[in-house]
Design goal:
With about 300 residues, this protein is of the alpha/beta class. Helix content is about 40%, strand content about 20%. The protein has helices spanning about 5-15, 30-40, 60-65, 70-80, 90-95, 110-115, 120-135, 145-155, 185-210, 215-225, and strands at about 1-5, 20-25, 45-50, 85, 135-140, 165, 170, 230-240, 255-260, 265-275, 280, 285. The chain binds adenosine monophosphate (AMP).
Length: about 300
């Protein structure tokens, strides 16, 4: 594996089919699952680590975002990364970019409403990576379900010839979705945060029993979260996977998404619901504690 910091170096090292995994680093098994999937299908796996200032709405979140490059280098290499691209902010954007990519509609609700400018920051960065690296396939987690819709829409509208692949949510042994931000939860908040995934799983069970009304599922989630006063809910919504529009009745692929603050940490999670098969996708649980907490 080579660790590089300029686009020229990345391009010089790429050959054959290119798989791209954009990240903000501080790796956990969710990130590693994307790298491993890229390895199976690519000649060159490029992983980027860039804590993108454009997509942070709150300076305190940007400042406290966990970082540990030495740890990430070892984990990326073990997972099969060929080129680890770690640019400085000045390399990526020079000054603040004059050109910004706004993905209208799909970026407006949920995360877009809660974090103004967030998706323009994401889309601008990802478009820049697609233009400069020209990947054949790019791997994103369904953990960030709306982000996946935004990236797919942007790639289609700007005619990038990249396949945007959505990968399963990887969860801790008790069900909490893996997030680099989980390391900022103290013990009490960590325990309270479990209400997020628990409430989604309860709604997934109700969906699998045949219920197709979004309001009913949202009520199931809300009732569970209401019992946990350490969780401040920001939104609970059911949206199409195709355009992230809110739906009242589920008649095609949707995701049930929640965002909440627990002990000062903002967390998001979702389950995918497929009315065609009647199956809810709850993601994949680890069998052992996550490497986030010092394991290997
Ligand atoms: P981040 O470093 O948080 O920006 O995430 C980089 C990529 O990893 C994004 O495509 C995320 O959706 C994905 N990702 C983050 N957490 C998970 C998870 N628990 N399971 C699967 N993918 C994830």
């Amino acid at each position: 594996m080579r660790t590089v910091s300029t686009f020229d170096e990345v391009r010089a090292l790429c050959e054959g089919r290119i798989g791209l995994v954009p990240t903000m680093g501080f790796f956990h098994e969710g990130h590693l699952s994307l790298i491993e999937a890229a390895c199976k299908e690519s000649d060159t796996v490029v992983v980027t680590i860039f804590v993108n200032p454009l997509q942070f709405h709150e300076t305190s979140d940007l400042d406290t975002y966990p970082r540990d490059l030495d740890r990430d280098v070892t984990l990326a290499e073990t997972a099969g990364c060929d080129v680890l691209f770690v640019p400085e902010v000045s390399t990526m954007f020079g000054t603040i970019p004059v050109t910004r990519i706004e993905v209208a509609g799909v970026a407006d609700g949920m995360e877009g409403a809660a974090r103004p400018g967030h998706f323009a920051g994401v889309a601008t960065l990802v478009a820049k990576l697609f233009s400069a690296i020209r990947p054949d396939t790019a791997y994103f987690g369904r953990k960030d379900a709306q982000q996946l819709v935004v990236v797919r829409t942007m790639a289609r509208d700007l005619s990038y010839s990249v396949e945007v692949r959505g990968m399963p949510i990887i969860r801790e042994t008790d069900g909490l979705a893996l997030s680099s931000r989980n390391v900022r939860l103290d013990a009490e908040s960590r325990s309270a945060a479990l209400a997020l995934s628990d409430s989604l799983f309860a709604a997934a069970d109700v969906f699998e029993s045949g219920v197709r009304s979004s309001d009913t599922l949202i009520d199931v989630v809300r009732e569970r979260l209401d019992t946990q006063d350490k969780v401040a809910v920001e939104y609970i919504e059911v949206a199409n996977t195709s355009d992230a529009a809110s739906v009242e009745r589920m008649d095609r692929d949707v995701f049930l998404a929640i965002a909440g603050r627990v002990g000062g940490v903002r967390l998001i999670d979702n389950v995918h619901l497929d009315p065609g098969s009647g199956v809810a996708d709850r993601g994949v649980r680890l069998g052992v504690p996550s490497i986030l907490y010092g394991g290997t």
